[in-house]
Amino acid sequence: MSLEGIAAQAFSMVAALVLAPLLAGWVGQCRAWLQNRRAPPLLQPFRTLHKLFRKEAVMAHEASPLYRSAPYVVFACMLLAGMIIPTLSTNLPLAPAADAIALVGLFALARLFISLAAMDVGTAFGTLGARREMLIGFLAEPALLMVFFTASLLSSSTSLARIVESVSRQELTILPSLAFAGVAFTMVSLAENARIPVDNPATHLELTMIHEALVLEYSGRHLALLEWAATLKLFAYSCAGIALFFPWGVAHARDYVALALAVPVLVAKLAAGGFFLALIETTLAKMRIFRVPEFLATAFLLGVLALLVHILLGA
Amino acid sequence: MTPMSTQLVNLFASALLLLAFAMLSQRRIVRLINLFALQGLALVASTITMAYATGQSHLYWSAAINGLLKVIVLPWILHRLIRRLSVKWDIETLINIPTMMLVGIVLVVFAFNLALPISQFSHSIARGTLGIALACVLMSFLMMITRSKAVPQVIGFLSMENGLFFAATSATYGMPMVVELGIALDVLVGMVILGVFMFQIREQFDSLDIHHLEKLREE
């Protein structure tokens, strides 16, 4: 592990911590513009986090240590996920710790903890949210794995850094399998990040909420960590999408100029992705929860088709 | 690296497969017709690409016939038909979409395996897509089996013809012109006859559900 690698890793950690709430703020702003509302400032997520960190954390009397530790575990999982996805540089010392499959496992671990914690206090809403989260999670996971398998087959490696390197160095070819995988990945990301059409992140409407129901009992610094983790999750998914499908402009090892250039490129890509997300959220309506399995089955189908088309056509 | 034309044909073939799945899982009849028109468009695009790449002028003709028939005339007839049958916003309620998709995936795997040894004998630039064409045919069969209303069944039948045409072009650069013209005429006439049938079915049973046809009774 070289000093340079550690520096790149620390840099990507700071970038994840700062850019994740900014991305959430940007999506909120785009949504407001598209819906003819007055937009909240770009730094609104930071202000919310700041406010929450100063507040006292209130907890139920029956809360177990699991409930208390869950926010930290979830936050750590999401931060690690944001760090190991090569968006700025492919030279990351922590990247061998988790390949694409372990990344899916990391998301699953966070989901397990947040669901257990939501059920821990024993309120009805927490249990409801946990069940819905698990329903969506267990349907979204195979679809996500299929997307990663397709990308791994294309570059014959499950290491994310290797995938990014091979895709960005290849000549420009039309790959139908990657197009299928891209659509599947978008659908999974919408479901996993509690976005419209699966869940509305901006509402506390009790019958439809999923993410909000999970974190309903949390307050103060715990809630701040969970909200930050949610933005980090969105950031990690966006970065994974960028790494798999638009990996141009990522710095390779020992290329400082490229590393400096990679930051504005990443910001531009994230801004475009955030606008696309806001566009989806504005044009689609939220679907019934019992339609979500259909939605995710379609994502799984597209993932499998990507795999099959790659095997048949070699493209 | 594969030539650009093959890449484009592969892309259109994938679109064809995707549209077949979309048709399989579409509940609304209007959207089903639009998807059918789109499938025809993908077919025309891939045929034109193949004609351009191989310089076979008769493929342009078959692309033109297909474009006229499957993108304009047949969707127009179908739209008129559902308007006159007043089933435009009908929804098929009894289809389980996730199960259908899983069955569809199994069919695709089967078709791909089946087509792999056959396509090795072909010298066409698009021989790899034979599996996709077969899968489209099988999926249209599945659609005809699972749907209970008359109009989606007819659309399934028509999209099967799409798959067959694509199989012919991808394996051997299309059938002779006479055969193609004959099939085009057959499809058109078949459509007209089926349209008449639909009115008869509705007149007899007050619905387009073809399960009524399965009951035999003496009156």
Q: Helices and strands of chain B: which structural class?
A: mainly alpha
Helix-strand topology string of chain A: HHHHHHHHHHH
Order of helices and strands of chain B: HHHHHHH
Mean pLDDT of chain B: 85
**Poorly predicted ranges of chain A (pLDDT <50, ≥5 residues)?**
none
Please report the distance between the alpha carbons of the first and last residues of chain B: 69 Å
Cα gyration radius of chain B (Å): 18 Å
Helical stretch tally of chain B: 7
Query: Helical element count of chain A?
Result: 11
Mass-distribution shape of chain A? globular
Uncertain runs of chain B are none
The helical percent of chain B reads over 70%
Number of strands of chain A: 0
Descriptive overview:
The complex is a heterodimer of chains A (315) and B (219). Chain A is mainly α. In chain A, 71% of the residues lie in helices and 0% in strands. Chain A is built from eleven helices and no strands. Chain A has helices spanning 3-34, 44-54, 65-84, 100-120, 124-155, 160-169, 176-192, 211-214, 220-245, 256-283, 292-313. In chain A, helix 1 (3-34) packs across helix 9, helix 1 (3-34) packs parallel to helix 10 (256-283) and helix 9 (220-245) crosses helix 10 (256-283). Chain B is mostly helical. Chain B has helices at residues 4-24, 29-54, 57-84, 97-119, 130-146, 150-172, 177-205. The mean pLDDT of chain B is 85. Chain B has seven helices and no strands. Chain A binds chain B through residues 171, 173-174, 176-177, 179-180, 293-294, 297-298, 300-302, 304-305, 308-309, 311-315, and chain B through 1-2, 7-8, 10-11, 13-15, 17-18, 21, 25, 97-98, 101-102, 104-105, 108-109, 112, 115-116, 128-129, 131-132.
